[in-house]
Amino acid sequence: MIQSRPRTPLGYLPILLPAFALFAFYVVPFGSMVGMSFFHNLGGGAYEEVFTLENYARLFSPFFLSVLATSFEVAFLVALFAIVVGFPFTYLLVNARRGTQVFWLIVMLSVLSLSEAIIGFAWSTLLSRTAGIGVLFEALGLTEKAQSYAPSLGAVLAGVTYIAMPYAVLLLYPILSRIEPDIEQASRTLGASPLRAFFNVIVPMHRTPIVVSFVMIFVFTLGSYLLPQILGRPTNWTLSVVISDQALLQSNMPFAAALSIFLMTVTILLVLLVTLMNRKGAKA
Question: Where are the bilayer-spanning segments (predicted)?
Answer without folding.
Answer: 12-39, 59-90, 102-123, 153-176, 197-227, 255-276
